[in-house]
Write a structure and sequence with these properties.
alpha/beta; Amidase signature (AS) enzymes; 11-stranded mixed beta sheet; 15 helices; 11 strands; globular; binds glutamine
C-alpha cells in the first residue's frame, strides 16, 4: 500500500531519491521468514519506514543529496540502518535532503526540491525535508532524520508531524555521512508522539563504533509517551524566543499551547537564556568549520564522481575539477567559511570565540534546568515558506533554525510536536520542548500531553 501511495504522489512531492520496490519486498519477505522460523522478527516487524539518504545502506545507493556521491554504493550499513533492520522495519527507500544536510528547505539538494504536501508551492523544511514530506504525505508512517542545527525539528514543525532530536550521543553517528560531527544527531519522525518514541527506542543506544556514543541506558521514551501527564511539571518559556520577527499565527498557537499545559497542571514560568541570542552566529562558525574538515574526504579518489581524469592531469587538478563540479553553491560557501574560520591568525577570533559562546549556551541551559524541568518555544519563527523565497538569501534561510540551534550546541534533547494551524495561512505550527542531556523522556511526556 505504501509503495502504491509513493507511486501516486511522488510526481508532486519528490520526497524520495531512491525507491526500488523489489528491494523493499525482499526485506518484507525476510521479516516473514524470521517469523515463520519461530524467531523474534523485532518490535516493529513489517512496519515500513523512509530513510534519510545520509545514512549508509548496503542494498541502496547513498548520495547525501550531492552530485559528488552520485551512484555511490556503500560497503556497509550505518548503525541506525542496521538497527532498523533488526527491529523488523522495512526500508521503503532513501529520502531527499539538502546537500550534506546543509539547509532548511531541501532546495539545496542536487536532485531537485521536495514539496510540502500541505501546499506544493512551499518547502517541507530541511535538511530532512524528504523524510518530513514522506510522513506528512502518508508515503510512510515513520522516517529517519538527522539534526545538526534543527534539521529534524524544523521540517517536522512545517509539515505538521512529530520530530525528535535525541541527546547528542544517544543515537549513533556510525555510517552517518558527517556534516558537523560534534552536532550531528540521528532521530525519528512520525505522525504521532508514540510512534516517534517507538522508533526512537528501536535505533538509539550505545554503539562501540561511535566514540561519542553515550554508554548509558536509553531514556524510557515509550513509557513517557504513554504517560503524557504534565501535572506538577515545571515548564519554562524561553524569554528570548517569540518577539519581533515571529509570525503572529505562530505566536498565537504557541501561547495557546502554553495555556493548555498550564490548565493540565504544569507550572509555567518565564526563563531568560541571554546567550541563546548568540547561538546562530556561533553555529555558523562551528558547523562550517567542522564541515570543511569532514568534506576533505571527497577527494575524487575514494568515492563517487571523478572529473577530468584523462591521464594528462595531476591528482590535484582532478581533485579541484571534481570538487568544483560535484559540490553545490551552499556546500562551497560553507567549506570556504569554515576553512577561513580555522585558518591561522583567525582561529582564535572566530572558531575559538564561537566555542566560548557554545559554553555560555550550555551554562544557560544548566541554569534554566535548575529552575524548570523543560523549556518551550515555537519550533520555528514562521510556517513553511514558498519555494524560492529564501533560496538566494542565506541569512534569511539561516533564521529558520533560530530556536533549534541552542540545543545542538549544548547537546541536550528537543522535540517538535504539532500545536495547530496558523490563522493567516492555515499551515502547521510546531511547539518545541527542550530537556536536559538524557532527559529525552521529558520531551515525549510534554509532547504527548499537547497531542492529547
Ligand atoms: N539549517 C541548518 C544548516 O543549514 C541546520 C541543518 C541541519 O540540522 N542539518 O546548517
Amino acid at each position: 500500500a505504501h509503495l502504491d501511495r509513493i507511486a501516486a504522489v511522488e510526481p508532486q512531492v519528490n520526497a524520495f531519491l531512491h525507491v526500488e520496490a523489489e528491494t523493499t519486498l525482499e526485506q518484507a519477505r525476510a521479516v516473514d521468514a524470521r517469523l515463520a522460523a519461530g524467531e523474534n522478527p523485532g518490535p516493529l516487524a513489517g512496519v515500513p519506514i523512509a530513510h534519510k539518504d545520509v545514512f549508509t545502506t548496503l542494498d541502496m545507493p547513498t548520495t547525501a543529496g550531492s552530485k559528488i556521491l552520485e551512484g555511490y554504493r556503500p560497503p556497509y550499513d550505518a548503525t541506525v540502518t542496521r538497527r532498523l533492520r533488526e527491529a523488523g522495519l522495512v526500508i521503503l527507500g532513501k529520502t531527499n535532503l539538502d546537500e550534506f544536510a546543509m539547509g532548511s528547505s531541501t532546495e539545496n539538494s542536487a536532485y531537485g526540491p521536495t514539496r510540502n504536501p500541505w501546499d506544493l508551492s512551499r518547502v517541507p523544511g530541511g535538511s530532512s525535508g524528504g523524510s518530513s514530506a514522506a510522513v506528512a504525505a502518508y508515503e510512510a508512517p515513520l522516517s529517519t532524520g538527522t539534526d545538526t542545527g534543527g534539521s529534524i525539528r524544523q521540517p517536522a514543525a512545517v509539515t505538521g508531524i512529530v520530530g525528535m532530536k535525541p541527546t547528542y550521543g544517544g543515537s549513533s553517528r556510525y555510517g552517518l555521512i558527517a556534516f558537523a560531527s560534534s552536532l550531528d544527531t540521528p532521530g525519528p519522525f512520525a505522525r504521532n508522539v508514540m510512534d516517534a518514541a517507538l522508533l526512537h527506542e528501536a535505533f538509539s543506544g550505545h554503539d562501540v563504533m561511535d566514540s561519542t556514543s553515550i554508554d548509558a541506558p536509553v531514556p524510557s521514551v515509550v513509557e513517557a509517551a504513554r504517560i503524557g501527564d504534565v501535572a506538577g511539571l515545571r515548564i519554562g518559556v524561553v524569554k528570548e524566543f517569540g518577539g519581533d520577527g515571529y509570525q503572529p499565527g505562530v505566536l498565537a498557537r504557541f501561547h495557546e499551547t502554553v495555556e493548555l499545559l498550564e490548565s493540565l497542571g504544569a507550572k509555567v514560568v518565564e526563563v531568560s537564556c541571554p546567550s541563546f541570542t548568540t547561538a546562530l552566529p556561533a553555529y555558523y562558525l562551528i558547523a562550517p568549520s567542522e564541515a570543511s574538515s569532514n568534506l576533505a574526504r571527497f577527494d575524487a579518489m575514494r568515492y563517487g564522481l571523478r572529473v577530468g581524469d584523462d591521464g594528462t592531469r595531476s591528482a590535484e587538478e582532478v581533485m579541484a575539477l571534481t570538487r568544483a563540479a560535484g559540490f553545490g553553491p551552499e556546500v562551497k560557501r560553507r567549506i570556504i567559511l569554515g576553512t577561513y574560520a580555522l585558518s591561522s591568525g583567525y582561529y582564535d577570533a572566530y572558531y575559538g570565540q564561537a566555542q566560548k559562546v557554545r559554553t555560555l549556551i550550555a551554562r544557560d541551559f544548566d541554569a534554566a534546568f535548575h529552575q524548570v524541568d523543560v523549556l518551550v518555544s515555537p519550533t520555528t519563527p514562521t510556517t513553511a515558506f514558498p519555494i524560492g523565497e529564501r533560496a538566494d538569501d542565506p541569512m534569511a534561510m539561516y533564521l529558520a533554525d533560530l530556536c533549534t540551534i541552542p540545543t545542538n550546541l549544548a547537546g541536550n534533547a528537543g522535540i517538535s510536536v504539532p500545536c495547530g494551524l496558523a490563522d493567516e495561512d492555515g499551515l502547521p505550527v510546531g511547539l518545541q520542548v527542550m530537556a536536559p542531556v538524557l532527559g529525552d523522556d521529558r520531551c515525549y511526556r510534554v509532547a504527548a500531553a499537547v497531542e492529547k
